Amino acid sequence: MTSAASTPTRFGFANHLFCRECGATFDLGASHACADCFGPLEVGYELPSLTRSDIEAGPASIWRYASLLPVPRDVAGSRGTEPGWTRLARADLLARELGMSALWVKDERGNPTHSFKDRVVAVALAAAVEMGYKVLACPSTGNLANAVAAAAARAGIRSVVLIPADLEPQKIAATAVYGGTMVAVDGTYDDVNRLASELADEREDWAFVNVNVRPYYAEGSKTIGYEIAEQLGWRLPEQIVVPVASGAQLVKIDKAFRELIALGLVADTGYRVFGAQATGCSPVAAAFRAGHDVVQPVKPATIAKSLAIGNPADGPYVLDVVRRTGGAVADVSDAEVIGAVRLLAATEGIFGETAAGVTLGVLRRLLAEGRLDPRAETVIINSGDGLKTLDAVGQGGGPGNAPAAIRPTLAAFEAWESAHERKAVA
Amino acid sequence: MTSVAVRIPTILRTFTGGSAEVSAEPGTLREVIASLDAAYPGLGGRIVDDAGNLRRFVNVYVGDEDVRFAEGLETPVPAGSHVSVIPAVAGG
User: Which one of A74, A314, A346, B56 is most buried, by most CB atoms within 10 A?
Assistant: First the structure.
């Protein structure tokens, strides 16, 4: 904690790292775990005073919040993917279906590689460049691989992504196209993650965005929280439902809300944070139900592969946030996930990935159990694009399957209509 | 092969004089860590807390298996096996 408050460095107003477990502080640099207790390191700031108009005058990307991130002040001028400023879609038809008063969907499909991962990668890339790394790397369940490969291509540096071999084909193709190195690993995401942690210790000029650069990377998810508040007209929603994989997104949205309150940019109106998991990988929901503050790892088995992290690094902090704010963590079955993906698409024209089905599925579950208030303004996160998880809705004769063809005649159409459409309308 | 090989993460290499891999005596994981601590004083305390439990943010693998899926600190570590210690703050 050395630099003066008013003088931004190449890491902006960030001026130290600190351990979230024991509080030890360290200089900004390439470390991610506490040398004393192994706890995760977090970026600390001496934040400047900032007005709403300062932010509103910025670019239509996450860099409008550059002052609140560990990045150079001129970051918007470097070659990046310029993620963020995705739409906050008012979801009236979905709200009516659920019996809610006011519901919004933060639609992260609008990012350059169609998931929120572009945000975290952009921040990791900026920090990695400042620290002199030469290669951008990651272990990934797919969305992150897409984002890393694209950002590295645009920045003109090499990328190396490690993925579980059973990943969805769409995510593999959407990574390979950028021309980086992709290595399929025989194992679960947690196995891939372990390999990446060992590799990060051996390859000194490789920035594994979510391993050795993770303190910087994770800060990128704060921009989801900033945007929601700004897009609501500089106020906080009363309830928010966030998907939980590692848990970092949920924890950072909460951090963003608290920073906005501390900076005086929004009123402290109180909010409740809810976490969503798929039952086949629900270690945090299980710990929440059991009243534990540690998370017992599990072996994932769910179609929501982007959430299939059995040993979530931020699990304990998710529990802290939901308990502090009066929220909850809950889980839903794969069948409920598919139903929710279809409901979101049919009511709002938003085709989310399976993680969106998890989030909406948990919203329905919490409403049914009376743990979420249908009259309170609520935001849910759609973290990615259904086009990357097509197989999930293509199974079981659902609308993902191609319909049987008819001959190109009016008679054939009318015969088809009397067999299908009128039945559907009735 | 009468010993076990233990992979040391970067943040603990100050204890091992920079070595990325050291050898220890076989036994339970708890005994392996105790033998490491005898050879490299202080190292054990970084992996196991004062109450004798595995620290919350450390993952230890014996072979391919996360010991939290096995018997934790009582997991057997036979001669010839590989142990890996890594920070649990990665991923997502």
Answer: A314
Q: Taking Cα atoms as reference points, which of A61, A60, A65, A17 lies closest to residue A39?
A: A17
Q: How far is it between the farthest Cα atoms of chain A?
A: 80
Query: Could you tell me if A291 and A367 lie in one domain?
Result: yes
CATH of residue B45? 3.10.20.30
Range of the domain at B10: 4-87
Check if B51 contacts A (Cβ < 8 Å). no
According to the model, what pLDDT value does residue A6 have? 57
Question: Encoding tokens for residue B15?
Answer: 């204890």
Asked whether the beta carbons of residue A33 and residue B87 sit closer than 8 angstroms, the reply is: yes
Of B7, B64, B89, the CB nearest to A313: B89
What would the pLDDT profile of A16-37 be if each residue is shown by its tens digit? 999 999 999 999 998 899 988 9
Nearest-CB residue to B91 (from A34, A36, A313): A313
Of residues A191, A201, A311, nearest to B88 (C-beta): A311
- Quick check: B89 contacting A, CB < 8 Å? yes
Pairing verdict, β B65-66 and B58-62? antiparallel
pLDDT in tens, A353-394: 999 999 999 999 999 999 999 999 999 999 999 999 898 887
pLDDT at B42: 95
pTM for this predicted structure: 0.94
Q: Is the pLDDT of residue A52 over 50?
A: yes
Q: Return the structure tokens found at B21.
A: 């891999």
Interface check for A211 against chain B (CB to CB < 8 A): the answer is yes
How many CB atoms lie under 10 A from the CB of residue A87? 15
